[in-house]
Design goal:
Helix content is about 60%, strand content about 10%. The chain is built from eight helices and three strands. It has a three-stranded mixed beta sheet. About 35% of the residues are buried. Mean pLDDT is about 80; it is low at about 1-10 and about 150-160.
């Protein structure tokens, strides 16, 4: 097959994370576990007459919904990775899904606070033994789910995070945290008669979830708004290019996917060379995946 003369200057815009398909499979697996536990809690709560379990089951359904958003974001990004309609590929779709999940986490925190406040005002009878048993099983499911997602969540620096997987991880951890606090509150109510502890623990859990929501929203929002992601990378690019009187006059760097950055550089030089010669100075910067160079001649100043 004959190649077009311009083919060597063309390149793909594939900026998905290095473990994209693996993370997608793990997310679907966690969705299955979460859905099974959600059904068990709703059915168990209904059978044992425990509104606490029914409420926690529906609360888990919101996490399952958020996890489904993450899974479909992986699938959509993978299927449309070569779609020219996406100028810089689909690498940032995971950050969009992560931002959506952060909003869902915030709503979950608000729902828990409202529910807990209602129980403080009007306490309801709780089947402590059954509720503790089912909550304990739920905690085990969440621990397994967190274990499945653990490797990539703690991988490298924050700017290399797959925020889509991080969002899924936080939903699982939020479920685990609420399960732990629920068990503590239920035990206190069962042993000491402190029924109000269940609601207090709910409020504490909501505060923790709200903090995670804010952190995730902040980090994904920075990517979506193209905030400069890595000061070190920017400084290193300047150090390598601004030599022998060459000066960068315009500079833009942003994240286009997990572990992928794009940069546009406008440079003036007394002895301008080809853009490729400048690009070669940046070739070993592993996370720099898309480089656009603009070179202008610089006039000698009159003495």
């Amino acid at each position: 097959m004959l190649r077009h003369p311009t083919d060597r200057w063309q390149h793909a815009h594939l900026f998905l994370g290095g473990r994209h398909e693996r993370n997608e499979r793990k997310t679907w697996l966690v969705i299955g576990l979460t859905a099974c536990m959600m059904i068990a809690e709703i059915a168990g709560g209904t059978y044992f007459g425990s509104m606490a379990l029914v409420a926690d089951g529906w609360h888990m359904s919101t996490h399952a919904g958020a996890l489904i958003i993450s899974a479909f974001a992986y699938r959509y990004a993978r299927r449309h990775k070569d779609d020219p309609a996406f100028t810089f590929g689909t690498g940032k779709l995971g950050d969009l899904a992560g931002f959506s999940s952060a909003l869902i986490l915030a709503l979950i925190a608000l729902f828990i606070v409202l529910q807990a406040a209602g129980r403080i005002i009007a306490p309801i009878p709780i089947a402590f033994g059954e509720a503790i048993a089912v909550a304990s099983v739920g905690l085990m499911v969440n621990i397994v789910s967190a274990w499945l997602l653990r490797d990539d969540h703690h991988h490298d620096h924050a700017h290399h995070h797959d925020h889509n997987l991080r969002a899924a991880y936080l939903h699982v951890i939020a479920d685990a945290a609420t399960s732990v606090l629920a068990i503590v509150g239920l035990l206190a109510g069962w042993i000491y008669g402190w029924v109000w502890m269940d609601a207090v623990m709910g409020i504490i859990g909501a505060a923790v979830i709200a903090n995670w929501s804010y952190t995730l929203m902040r980090d994904t929002g920075r990517v979506l708004l193209d905030v400069t992601p890595d000061a070190f990378l920017g400084d290193e690019i300047r150090r390598r290019l601004e030599v022998d009187g060459d000066v960068i006059t315009d500079f833009h760097i942003w994240q286009v996917g997990p572990g992928h950055h794009a940069v546009i550089v406008s440079l003036v030089s007394y002895n301008p060379r080809s853009p490729d010669s400048y690009k070669s100075k940046l070739a070993d910067l592993k996370t720099l995946s898309h480089v656009t160079m603009e070179v202008h001649p610089r006039q000698q100043e009159a003495r």
